[in-house]
Structures are given as C-alpha cells and as structure tokens.
User: Fold this.
Amino acid sequence: MSRSDSTAKTAIAAATAAERRELADVLDSLSPAQWDAPSLCAGWRVREVAAHMSLGFRTSPAGFAAELLRARGNPHRMTDRTARRDAAAFTPRELAALLRENAGHPWKPPAAGPTGGLAHDVVHGLDITLALGHPRRVPEDRLRLLLDAVTPRGLRFFGVDLTGTTLRADDLDWSYGAGTPLYADAQDLLLVCFGRRLPAGRLHGGPEGSRVPPTLVA
Assistant:
C-alpha cells in the first residue's frame, strides 16, 4: 500500500468513527415518539434503521451466511428481517451504545469500496435525521469523500437513473451528470445517489423551472 493510499484509508476510518459517535449522540437525544417515527427507509421506523446500522458489528461472516440462508438467499429479505428482530430486542439506549462502542470497527458492506462503511453510516444517519426534521448537518469533509466516490456503477446498484439530469449542490462546489440541472443541499443529493426519494420541496430545478423527475421525490 502506498503512503497516499494509507493516508486516505486512515482519513476514511477517522471520518467513519466520528460519524458513528455523532450519530450515537443524536440517537441518545431522541424521544420515544421519534424512535417510532418513520424513516426514509420504506417500512422502517428510526429504531429499525438504528438496529440495522449495528448488524455488521454484531454478526460474524458465518452469521451473515446463516441469516442469508434463512432468507433464501435474498439480501433484502435478510436485512429487513434482522432489522425488525433487533429493533425489538434492543432498547434505544443499547442501540445508540452499539454505534458509539463500535466507532472504530472496520466493518463495511460486502464488495463496497473504501468509503463503503462511511457511506453506510452517513446515508442511514440521514435516513433518520432528514425524516425527523433534525437539524444535524453532515460535515463537509465527509460529504466530499462520498460525493467524489459516486460512480455510474454505484448509481445503477441503487436503481438511480439520472439520464438527462445534472445534480448540483446548493452549498458545495459539486455536480454530477449531464443535462437539466437539479439543485439541493449536498447531503440531500447524496441521498438521491443512494436511491432515496426526497421529501417534496427539497429538490428543485434551475432557472428554467425544470420539472423534478418523479422518481427522485416521495
């Protein structure tokens, strides 16, 4: 590994650890009603998202294989079943503690790139905070790491079609794509790149009054 690669890996690990600690603080501040509120993940409340976020810390590779087998090889069925199970098994305080205590854990989604663990935590954190109207903002350095890692392959994986569209951040010097410009805060655009449909009013067209594609908003 080159020195530059080692430095980048260290920076990503530090950003991931900081994100987990800060999200744990957010979770600790939530009311019981907020824990049961819907998130941006379809069918999941805040507590299911929080439970899912800690699955990688609590499950060995053999355990993942067993869970996948129980779900008949369907990873979406597996993650949904385990999130619902664990949301019922752990208290809110325990779910927050799992994030905090595993801040330095090296887990990242299978086959994900070097920013995979950070992306997993940032996006799921936004699934919670944006849905709740929470004021937390993801720090710019973390957003840039993830936005700079957006690729056509990643967009296809999450079912995102940006044909004829350019995403442009209102608050950062970042854009992606070619075509009619659509604007939002950088953290909202990150959610778009990960297949989330934004609440109405968060994504808007350019000076021409472009129509927002219905696939990008809830």
